[in-house]
Amino acid sequence: MSFRLFNTLKPLLTCRALDFLTSSNPLLTCRALDFLTSSNALLTCRALEFLTSSNAFLTCRALDFLTSSNALLTCQALDFLTRSNPLLTYRASDFLTSSNALLTCQALDFLTRSNPLLTCRASDFLTSSNAY
After folding, report:
1. CA atoms of 98 and 104, how far apart (whole Å)
2. Is 89 in contact with 107 (CB distance < 8 Å)?
């Protein structure tokens, strides 16, 4: 039975399926993330939390995927990733402000409030790239 059909027929088992697939076969992790976040929005947060906490190398990909494919999750993804993985704060700032101009002010507000060391950099970026 395909994973897609499995999830359609047994939605309650999806979380367990994610746990099993990502822990027993790392090569399936990216596919599991793509499938779960695109087909079942309610699982997106759990998928993000599980994947980023258990596989640090997937954190950047998770951020890219969630913020580009589901705009409503951008703030939540930023909040989770920067809080749980401080090393991603700079990358999150770069990604959000360069790829989604409408989020620039919001990203600046969040990042400078939660990470004071970013204030000067954020100021430099915004004043040079957005004169208004």
Report:
1. 8
2. no
Residue type, 52: T
What is the pLDDT, as a whole number, of residue 113? 56
6: number of Cβ within 10 Å: 13
CA atoms within 13 A on the CB side of 94: 7
Helix, strand or coil, per DSSP, at residue 19:
helix
What's the farthest any 2 CA atoms get from each other in the chain? 55
- Measured CA to CA in angstroms, residue 41 lies from 44, 53, 78, 99, 105 at distances of 5, 19, 17, 22, 26
pTM: 0.23
In the structure encoding, which two tokens stand for residue 42, read together? 């309610």
CA 104 – CA 93 distance, rounded (Å): 9
CA dist., res. 100 & res. 111, Å (int): 15
Q: Where does the pLDDT of residue 57 fall: very low under 50, low under 70, confident under 90, or very high at 90 and above?
A: very low
Task: Please report the pLDDT score of residue 34 as a whole number.
Answer: 52
Q: For tokens 């359609």, what's the residue?
A: 8
Per DSSP (E only), the strands in the chain are: none
